Hints:
By secondary structure, this protein is an all-alpha fold. The chain has 13 helices and no strands. It has helices at residues 8-27, 31-58, 64-77, 82-97, 104-117, 124-138, 141-154, 159-175, 179-192, 199-212, 230-246, 250-263, 267-286. Helix 2 packs antiparallel against helix 3, helix 5 (104-117) runs antiparallel to helix 6 and helix 8 (159-175) runs antiparallel to helix 9 (179-192). The longest helix is centred in the first third of the chain and has 28 residues, at 31-58. It is globular, with a radius of gyration of 29 Å. It starts with 7 loop residues before the first helix and ends with a helix.
Amino acid sequence: MSILFQKPAKKIILLFIFLNALWLNIQSISADDQLLMLAVSLEIQQQQARVIYEKIIATDDDELERIESLYKQLIEQCPDTHYAQQSFWLLSSLYRFGWDKPKWQSIQDLLQKYLVEYPDSNDVDKIRKRLLNAYANLHEWENSIELYKQIFISEPYNKQNILDYAYPYAEALRMNNQIDQAIIWYQRFLTVAQDKDDLRIMYAHDTLNALREYTVSLAAPKIPVKELSSVQIAQQYIKQGNILQKKGDYSGALQAYKNSLKQQKNSSLNDRVKRLEAYLDIRKIKKP
Length: 288
């Protein structure tokens, strides 16, 4: 008689015996056989991932929601493949550049998941940088600070890490009103930054000067950050424009000067803007 037609108590006993036998059978599988099963599973995932990738390639570029859905499908169904790791990055790029406005929240959620699932990936650095960019745009300063701590905890004196991350780390600390720590990291950035054309050096010096005016010592209680005046902001844009013009980036210099004029009227700078606009117009005409 089928198990389905046994008395309830007997059915439970038989079901328990069946499941126990099944478990013992799984336990008896050799390590080599388990590795073989994993390899077969990976091959199946790779085949499925290739099929999904072909669908993505065949999809029109303006079908953003469908492309998003296919990337998500690949990530969920083929997590052990390199295709899945690539899809995290490509999907984050879609969120960054695909729509009129970046989907920073989606980028944050996606890349946080990546760091949990692939902590030893070779792409961790670029994932962190984009995630930090998302945190900054979302004003998630506490999350930013925690991620910067993770970066520096393993290699606190790595010069390249300090050059890449110390300045934005100081900015996050400042925005989170951790003034004493912000000053330390601005200073640490300035100890390794050597490129005179690096605009961050100018900003770090200006910010440090502003903070020191309101901080008695590093042990002082937290205080509100002093906002730069429109005159100070205008001066920063002029400095930026001068650097860009010196480097030959005339379009960038022009935009910096215009930004300065938005902060403060300046007749001589206005004349410079007109001359620079005329110069760029002439260059356009001369181009074939």
